[in-house]
Design a protein that fits this description.
The protein is an alpha/beta fold. It has eight helices and 35 strands. The strands form five sheets. The protein has a 21-stranded parallel β-sheet that branches. The chain binds uridine-diphosphate-N-acetylglucosamine and calcium ion. The site of calcium ion (CA) has 2 residues, from loops.
Amino acid sequence: MNIVILAAGVGKRMQSRTPKVLHHLAGRPLISHVLETAKRLAPEKICVVYGHGGEAVRETVGDTGAVWVLQQPQLGTGHAVTQAVPHLEDGSPTLILYGDVPLIRLETLERLLDAAGKGVGLLTATLDNPAGYGRILRKGSRVLAIVEEKDATAKQRELREINTGIIVAPTKKLKIWLAKLRNNNAQKEYYLTDIVRMAANEHIPVAAIQAREVWETLGVNSRPQLAEIERFYQRRVTTALMEKGTMLADPSRCDVRGSLVCGADVSIDVNCVFEGEVKLGDGTTVGANCVLRNVNVGPGTRIEPFCYLEDADIGAECRIGPYARFRPGSRSQLAAQVHIGNFVEVKASTIGEGSKANHLTYIGDTEIGRNVNVGAGTIVCNYDGANKHRTVIEDDVFIGSDTQLVAPIRVGRGATLGAGTTLTKDAPAGELTLSRAKQVSIQGWKRPVKAKK
Ligand code: UD1
Ligand code: CA
C-alpha cells in the first residue's frame, strides 16, 4: 500500500506562526500521531505532502522513512495528491490521510481497506451539523459523488452524511483521475473528491464506511478544536487505564502525554501529568499535582503530592515527596525503601536500599550506599563553576544537618559527619568527622541599644 498524508494547508484559523500539523496533541505534533498510525499499516511508501512552514515540519518530525513532497502553491487536495504521484506504486492501493486528523484508529483504516477491496473506499460520518464538509451524494445506496459545501445546492446541503477526507483508491486509476481534475468550482481548487464521481461513472465500486467513534475523524482547524480533540484523546487513554484496573480520582484531571503503563491497584490522585514513558508498579500511589516524565516506579512506592520527577528508576516501597524534584540528565536509580522528602532535589545519582534524605537537600552526581541518613539541609557541591565532580557516600553513613560535601569526595562506610560540616577532604570510615569553629560564649556581653536622638 501507498499512504499519502496531506499536510500542506496553511491552517489560518490556528492564528499561529507554527504550522498547524506541528501543534501538539498529547505532547507530540499532530503529524506524528498520523505518521505513527500510518506506519502500523506497514505500507511500502509513506509520502507527506508539505508546504506552508514545510522545513520546520521536516525538521521537527525528523527522519521517519517517509518521502517528503513539496506542494507549492497549494491548489487543493487533488493538486496535493498529484505532487506525490511519481512516488506511488501502481501495484497497490493508495490511502489518503490528513495530517490534521490525528485520532484516526488503525482498526478503522483496516476496515476501510477491506471494504474498498479493489475499488474506492470512503470514510464518511453522519453529523447533526454537517456545515463546512463535503456531502456524499447517493442514488439508493450507491455513492455517486462528493459535492463540496460551497458548490452544493440548498437541497444537497441538507444531507448529513459527510466526507471525512480519508479515501483509498486503486493507484493506477487514481493517477488517471488526478490528471483529469479541473478547478472549475466555487473555490477554484483541484478537488480530490472529484475522483469519486469519475469512479462511479466508470462503474468502479465505491464503498463508504463510518468510524465507530465520531472523534476519530475530527480535524483540527482552530485552537478550541485542538483542545477538544485533546480531551477526546485523554478520555480514551484514561478509560483504558481504568478498565485495566487503575484508580483515577478524576479521569478528567489526568493527562498522559506519552505512555503510562500501570501494574495492579495503582492509584492516582487529581491533576497528574505523565510524559514520555512512565511505568508504575503494583500498588503504587501518586498524590495530587505530580508530573512524572520518563520514570519507572517500583511496587508499593508512594509518591506524595507536588512532585516533579524526571529520568529516574525508583525501587519498591519508596516514599517520595511531597515536593521532591528529580532532575533530568543521566537517570537516577533508587533502590528499595528509599525516602526522599520535601524540597529534596536529586540528579544523576544512585541511592542504596533504606537510605533517607527527608528535608531540604541537594544530591547530584552522587553514589549513596545503603542505610545512609542524610540530614536536613545537606548540599552536595558537585559543580566547581566549570566541571561536575562525583561524590561517594558509603553504607551506614550518618550526615548531620547543614553539611556541605565538596566534590570530588568520599565518605567511608559507617562514618558520621557532624552537623554544619563543610567536608573538603575524604572522611574516613567509622569515624566522626566535623569542621566547626570552636563554640565560645562571651560573658557579660550586651546587645546594642538604639541611640537616643
Ligand atoms: C476537505 C474535503 C471535504 C471534506 C473535508 C474534511 C476536498 C476538496 N474537500 O475539505 O470533502 O469534508 O476535507 O475535513 O478534498 N491540503 C493540502 N494542500 C492543499 C489543500 C489542502 O495539503 O492544497 C491538506 C490540508 O493541510 C488538510 C487537508 O488537505 O490537511 C484538507 O484540507 P482542507 O482545506 O481542510 O479541506 P476542506 O476544504 O476542509
Ligand atoms: Ca478542514
